[in-house]
Structures are given as C-alpha cells and as structure tokens.
Amino acid sequence: MIDRITEALGSNADHYLNHTCTTIPKEHIHLPNANSVDSIFGISDRNSRV
Predict the structure, then answer these.
(1) Which one, of 50, 15, 26, lies nearest residue 41 by Cα?
(2) Phi, psi (5° rounding) for residue 40?
(3) What pLDDT, on a 0 to 100 scale, did the predictor assign at position 4?
(4) Domain residues for 9?
(5) pLDDT tens digits, residue range 1-50?
(6) Which of 6, 20, 23, 37 is the most buried (most CB within 10 A)?
(7) Does 46 fall in a domain?
(8) 48 lies in a domain?
(9) Is the distance from CB of 40 to CB of 30 less than 8 angstroms?
C-alpha cells in the first residue's frame, strides 16, 4: 500500500510523508470518538434553538 502512495506522490513523496506540522499544536486537535459532538459542542452557552 505504501508503495502505491509513494508512487502516486512521485517526487514529492518524501516531503509529504515525512512532514511535521509546526503551525498547529497537536494538543489543539480534537480526534474523533464516539461522543465527539457532545464533548466539543456540548459545553456552550448558545441557545439550543439556534
């Protein structure tokens, strides 16, 4: 599988496959789970009728 991905990316494969993001800290990313919507949007003072 990785060979097919590397082939599809061509000469940019190393750049994309070994990239490390320095813009957004990983602590700010919410990984999906069974209750993602409730845990991210549930704690809000927004009117539920909106």
Answers:
(1) 50
(2) -90, -45
(3) 96
(4) 2-41
(5) 999 999 999 999 999 999 998 999 989 987 888 888 887 777 777 777 76
(6) 6
(7) no
(8) no
(9) yes
- The token duo for 5 is 């991905």
CA contacts within 13 A on the Cβ side of 17: 13
Reading the block at residue 23, the tokens are 């813009």
Q: Which tokens belong to 28?
A: 């700010």
Q: Does a structural domain hold residue 9?
A: yes
| Side chain identity at residue 6, one-letter code | T
DSSP line for the chain: -HHHHHHHHGGGHHHHHT----SS-GGG-----TTHHHHHHSS--S-TT-
Number of domains in the chain: 1
